[in-house]
Amino acid sequence: MTRDALKIATIGGGSSYTPELIEGYIKRKDELPIKEIWLVDIEAGKEKLEIVGEMAKRMVKAAGLDWEVHLTLDRREALKDADFVSTQFRVGLLDARIKDERIPLSHGVLGQETNGAGGMFKAFRTIPIILGIIEDMKELCPNAWLVNFTNPAGMVTEAAIKHGGWKKTVGLCNVPIGHRKQAAEKLGVAEEDLFFKFAGINHFHWHRVWDKEGNERTQELIDLIYGPQNEQESHLKNIWDAPFHYEQLKDLGMLPCGYHRYYYIEDEMLKHSIEEFEKGETRAQVVKETEARLFELYKDPKLDYKPKELEQRGGTHYSDAACEMIASIYNDKRTDMVVSTENNGTITDLPYDCVVEVSGPVTSHGHEPYNWGAFPPAARGIIQNMKGMEETVIRAAIDGDYGAALHAFTVNPLVPGGTMAKTLLDELLIAHKDHLPNFSESIAKIEKEQPDTVAYVTELMKSN
């Protein structure tokens, strides 16, 4: 890339993560010749956009930079001639996440916002929007890179690449960053002295680790982190630290993702989530309270730096990773990163044209993943099931296909099949009707034929 006056647009600019994004750009001021940063949001997020936007301007000024920070509700204005576009939006805001979690939990089912019933509905709401953004980009900034960290990141990225046709798309997640830091700390070495290979899909990957002498340290790390003599610690703020079964991980021979707790020890995670639900303390509700406190801090006209409290939000490192991704593409830095990108044979157990989350250097032409090969049978079976679920969710989101949506619910291992799958699907369709135009016919049918479903959802949301 040769431009020496970059324009960067962020969709979802009113996010509480934006100060970390700005901090990341400031850290790389000598690598990125930024001229304009555009923060764009929707009418419902206008107040937050103004609060965080003014803070962004203070941060840039305090750094002694002459960058222009623009705030707008006009997405097309923000996208015009952009070099990089990052996405960090949440359709329906945190109230939608509360519904995603509370409705399944009211039936004793995990609502997990990226992998379970809630995650599928987040995809239903988000995928049509990302495809709309891409249509605007084709017209307004046809050479831009799209850096996505809108969840569920893997499915959104696959929709952008495979269905939107935007090959210059990369998806990011903060989870691998935390695992890298954890490994370095446990081994007592610098992170850059270790070599990591991650492979899987978003929130469903495993990894192996080597030192610079060529010794694999994976089994040692399993012992140090998950051994029976150790108190297991998670670096994830948004997941309860239920202990993994040590013997299972030793057999697997790979380090798990923190989100694997929802599958390997589902009963414990479900029990804890139900307890939170009964106390009115689901993760979504906690995050909403945390975010409210953050925006009160952001209002301070003297605050011109990222507050430490943002680390409690759960997605720390997301935004900084996005900045490093942009810097690595712009400068052909070849930074080793874990990215959601096209498989292209990297993982032989998954479709060639699907999106996977894997390690590799980031070049000026995108991410070049390291070859992984095949998984052991225990991992192969469950990841193939999860990828099939993701592909079905994406198809349902694009087509508004009720049958495909029901099939996705039935395939997802965190959702009981049969009547319960259909019950959850119908209730969540009613709860999110304002953000699911592709499913309007199915929603109208449920409203007409199932008044009890409508009444149940209405009453549950009143008690929120």
UniProtKB/TrEMBL annotation:
Domain of life of the source: Bacteria
Cofactor note: Binds 1 NAD(+) per subunit.
Keywords associated with the record: Glycosidase, Hydrolase, Manganese, Metal-binding, NAD
Identification of the protein by name: 6-phospho-beta-glucosidase
Classification via PANTHER family: 6-PHOSPHO-BETA-GLUCOSIDASE, 6-PHOSPHO-BETA-GLUCOSIDASE-RELATED
SUPFAM superfamilies, alphabetized: LDH C-terminal domain-like, NAD(P)-binding Rossmann-fold domains
Pfam families, per database record: Glyco_hydro_4 (PF02056), Glyco_hydro_4C (PF11975)
Cofactor names: NAD(+)
Glycosyl hydrolase family 4 C-terminal domain ranges (all copies): 198-415
Xref: Gene3D superfamilies: Lactate dehydrogenase/glycoside hydrolase, family 4, C-terminal, NAD(P)-binding Rossmann-like Domain
Recorded family membership: Belongs to the glycosyl hydrolase 4 family.
InterPro entries registered for this protein in UniProt: GlycHydrolase_4_CS, Glyco_hydro_4, Glyco_hydro_4_C, Lactate_DH/Glyco_Ohase_4_C, NAD(P)-bd_dom_sf
